[in-house]
Structure to design on (423 residues):
């Protein structure tokens, strides 16, 4: 006698076998602003409250200084840092990657990737670091970027696969833009004070696949620091790259321009987001605006594809955050906002205090805003302001954005990395 297992049951059994040993609901945080690049986590059981001791699983000193965010993959935390090789705040820096055990915080490996020479390096802004670009991982390799000082690929055991220093331009205030992976390429925006371009590197070799100069801009302050976002429109991928005075969407395969929207703004930092078929772009300094763009056009679509705009308490530095039909953001000077994502109608605006550089994160039904002076404000997503908690790391600077993984928040301060979880 034979027994025939129904087809759907067979598929279920196979999927269970492949998922065996994986934590249920576990999610890795693989790049700046997480797996979607937009600050959204599906992790559960994330605490709303903590202090320097409460709900702290571990606190680990990190050598050097860096404002890159941590990334987390399969029980390891990776972050970049710059270790001073001279007197305090010198330009002689060892540019390194640090790997920590996510469960214990203990060092797994610590590798120098580049050495920065003071004789050939420009000073940085007081709020910047020599290691501000967040690394990213594809699950097999780690890609790190230090602006004009170099870009590299490492195996997850710390072995360097390739390095390049061919991305030359004159940075203003130092580096800041993080790279993004699309297909078999690593794409980086390189918006310097002298030259502005977007470049794609072969992810396997580091060789330049394509390089596209930005159009000339009138603004005398030509530099920007934004991280690209890869989106899919009509079944085709686009790489959306904000820069000074314009945002351009590029074809990943060859770097051809798909569409462009022009504006007035420089030193653009926030990463765009994509939701409801719209791209949300903050325009940087002088003064910051929010542009909401339909990405289905061709050529210069400034006059035809901008859905709505806003100038009210728009951030210069933190990226926006989309939850459902509502858009949340916080200005550099600490005014949080919630607006209707499709119309721009303001639901509320609230001064929460402090200054802000880190981008907000959503996890476990809560929104987290991290100020520069160590204060985290936690709110409930709603069309009225509902504050759940304020948490403090006394005396700590916190300019890096969070990583969220394994039911925990990883928070980088100027001296430590914390794992915050429900205890």
């Amino acid at each position: 006698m034979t027994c025939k297992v129904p087809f759907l049951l067979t598929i279920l059994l196979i999927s269970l076998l492949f998922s065996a040993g994986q934590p249920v609901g576990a999610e890795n945080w693989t790049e700046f602003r997480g797996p979607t690049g937009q600050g959204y986590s599906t992790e559960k059981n994330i605490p709303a409250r903590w202090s320097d001791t409460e709900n702290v699983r571990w606190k680990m000193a990190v050598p050097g200084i860096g404002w890159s965010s941590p990334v987390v993959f399969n029980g390891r935390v990776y972050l970049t840092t710059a270790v001073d090789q001279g007197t305090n705040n010198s330009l002689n820096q060892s540019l390194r990657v640090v790997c920590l055990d996510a469960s214990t915080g203990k060092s797994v490996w610590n590798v120098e990737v580049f050495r920065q020479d003071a004789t050939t390096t420009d000073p940085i802004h007081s709020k910047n670091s020599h290691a501000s670009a967040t690394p990213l991982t594809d699950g097999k390799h780690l890609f790190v970027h230090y602006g004009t000082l170099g870009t590299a690929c490492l195996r997850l055991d710390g072995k360097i696969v390739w390095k390049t220093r061919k991305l030359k331009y004159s940075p203003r205030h130092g580096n800041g833009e993080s790279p993004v992976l699309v297909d078999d390429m690593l794409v980086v925006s390189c918006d310097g004070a002298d030259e502005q371009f977007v470049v794609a590197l072969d992810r396997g070799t580091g060789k330049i696949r394509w390089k596209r100069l930005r159009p000339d801009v009138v603004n005398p302050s030509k530099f920007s620091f934004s991280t690209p976002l890869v989106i899919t429109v009509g079944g085709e991928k686009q790489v959306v790259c904000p820069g000074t005075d314009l945002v351009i969407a590029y074809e990943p395969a060859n770097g051809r321009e798909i569409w462009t929207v022009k504006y007035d703004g420089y030193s653009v930092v926030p990463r765009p987001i994509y939701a409801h078929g719209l791209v949300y772009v903050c325009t940087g300094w002088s003064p910051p605006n929010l542009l909401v763009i339909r990405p289905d056009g061709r050529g210069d679509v400034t006059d035809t594809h901008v859905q709505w705009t806003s100038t009210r308490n728009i951030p210069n530095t933190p990226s926006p955050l989309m939850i459902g039909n509502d858009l949340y953001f916080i200005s550099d000077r600490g005014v949080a906002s919630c607006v209707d994502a499709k119309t721009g109608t303001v639901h509320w605006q609230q001064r929460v205090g402090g200054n802000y550089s880190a981008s907000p994160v959503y996890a476990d039904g809560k929104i987290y805003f991290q100020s520069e002076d160590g204060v985290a404000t936690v709110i409930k997503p709603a069309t009225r302001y509902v504050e759940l908690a304020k948490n403090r790391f006394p005396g700590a600077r916190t300019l890096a954005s969070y990583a969220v993984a394994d039911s925990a928040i990883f928070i980088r301060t100027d001296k430590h990395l914390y794992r915050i979880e429900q205890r």
About this structure: The mean pLDDT is 91.
